[in-house]
Amino acid sequence: MPAVSRPAFFRHVCGGILVWGIGGFISVPGHAQTAIADGHSRLGSSAPFLAQIDPAAIRDSWQADEIDASRSQDTPSAAGGSLLGDMGGLRPWLARYGMTLSIQDVNELWGNATGGIASTNGDGRGAGTGASYIGITMPSLTADLEKLIGLRGGTFNVSALQIRGRAITQDHLGDFNPISGFEADRSTRLFELWYQQSFLKGALDIKVGQQDLDTEFLISDYASQYLNANFGWPMGPSVNLYAGGPSWPLAAPAIRFRYRPSGKYTFMFAASDDNPTGNRDSNVFGVTGNPSDPTSQTTNDGSGTLFNMGTGALLITEVQYALNPQDGVHHPGLSGVYKLGGYYDTARFPDYRYNTLGQSLGAQGGTPRWDRGNWLVYGIMDQLIWRPSPASPRALGVFVRATGNSGDRNIISFAIDAGLNLKAPFRGRTNDTLGIGWGIGRVTSGVRAYDRARGALVQGNENHFELTYQAQILPWLVVQPDFQYVLDPSGGMGDPSCPTRRIGNEAVFGLHTNVNF
């Protein structure tokens, strides 16, 4: 998800409009119900055990699975656990006051066997293949304010990140999206700091504070088990918008509304600052920001405490419909979740076609013209298509997600990802999931015209394929071997060390682990 590779210059979160409905209200279990928990409850045991969007999604997955285990026989009692147990009595003591302490630790090893770019940021020294390690530790403290101070429906959350290692995408690959959604610049930083209040028996909740929106908007629940960043926060917003927007590891000041008039419908809206770091790192043009590393997540805000509100506003909305939603006990039929949404960013973006004099930017050079606003629309389908019996843990699900946006100020014009997940593929492996996924990103007409005008190799489509197996080894340990193949990295962009030669297709192997402390 974080965009530390060359082309992921604009990452952002999405925007929209608040929709109100009329009807009876339902009580949602737990006033701090998360989007990850919603997906688990509506898709039942067919959802992947852990959502690999970012460490916050992993935390929410562990908690959701523990809730599922307590109310259903579909999930074994060993679904969730922690390595450190009650921490010598600390966790039970905190629980008496409504507080939950969780620690997520992610470690990954990656290597590309073929293709890619030369190491040391494409200066021509070193090999195009190599190995890489990345690791993240996220402690998080969540407080139920009803237990703590008597404020009914109130929840407080604070979390931090310790990020280490180096990103293989930046060093060896040069893809549009990182090969792993956990790649990020090394730092120790504040992550989220927010307060959430629920109303109307849980039908409405409002969250205010420093937030990442990629665990709530634009999510495919089935796609969330994959490790390629595109399956988490998709290629359109990830590549097109500034600095990654309010998405891992960069949170931003925001307010988010969520309204659920029934078990089938959900309406969401958020308004956020669009640029957590404050860098206007205008993609390949390097107008401002850090020209030597335009996608830097630490140039102006390595601590996560900037709380920037001086750039554009990002507005995002999403409408969800759940077909045959599961509740952990009843199984009304094959379940599905369908989502439509979009965003609008009020900031200015550099134009790929023209400079400030109205001339061709590619042919004449100069400073790009700045265009006001940016938008994207999207649709998502998660559908369970087969289960041998209503209560069986084995299930086959399919997902499709598509995004589209304007072409003059963006790198990607449209993107699609899709895949198949088989839950519990082997006897006795209830919480394992085997998945095969595919995604494509199409370079905009503006970028292609820019390439032609300056005599560079013209970029087209980037395709990526992923085969992955998520296995719960111990109640507190998940291991995930992974294979990815990238066809035409960055749409066939020229190799930085030899611009007349396209970056070679990449075969990438990885091993990912999650530990719940």
From TrEMBL:
Coiled coil: none annotated. GO terms for cellular component: membrane. Pfam families: OprB. It comes from the Bacteria. One of its GO terms (biological process) is carbohydrate transport. GO terms for molecular function: porin activity. Belongs to the OprB family. PANTHER family: PORIN B (PTHR37944). This is Carbohydrate porin. It comes from Komagataeibacter swingsii.
